[in-house]
Amino acid sequence: MYDYIKGQVTRVTPEYVVIEQQGIGYQLLTPNPFSFRKSEEIIQVYTYLHVREDSQNLMGFLDLSQRELFRKLILVSGIGPKGALAILASGEPTHVIQAIEREDESYLVKFPGVGKKTARQMILDLKGKLNDLIDIEHFDFTQEEPTLFEDGQATHELEEAMLALAALGYSERELSKIRPILKGNESLQKTDDFMKKALQLLFSGK
Fold first, then answer.
1. What angle do CA 184, 107, 166 make, to 5 degrees?
2. CB 60 within 8 A of CB 83
3. How do residues 79-118 score in pLDDT, each as one tens digit?
4. CB-based contact 126:84 (threshold 8 Å)
5. Any residues with CB less than 8 A from the CB of 155 and at least 6 apart, and which?
6. What is the distance between the alpha carbons of residues 99 and 74, in angstroms, rounded to a whole number?
């Protein structure tokens, strides 16, 4: 129904963003709300309208490949819209596509709500069907180690990131393990930076 919306970002929360277009504010659920910034700049956001008997939710994606992968993921038994958003929160569809192509169940089960059965179903349903979404041949999984320093900083931005990760389904136990590392990383200033590093740590098992 809606392919994309062009407008200004007027609100960013841990769960959704608001895009205003011609006086109407569209509430968009998105993998990482803090990849958006409140601004007067006009941006284009790709959308997907998910309709159930009791609700209608509009999803928003900055990248077309994210939206198309989202559409594929929600067709897999055991993965709903919230689970698909959590999977996409890593920021790179390439991560997920490579894991599926390599049948890497140990990677896939790190996403909230994805157990071995669902990971296997993702591979069975999607392997060989995602190559048209993105070039998966040139991606480096190398992850940098965090640089620690004594006092930590950007507490507000860190807590925003923790709220967003909790909204995606990560447990307090998982978040409590990475919180001290994030707090002591002097290179992290923005909420989006904390989100990206947190996801790296969660997937590397730190």
1. 50
2. no
3. 999 999 999 987 567 878 888 999 999 989 988 889 999 9
4. no
5. 183
6. 17
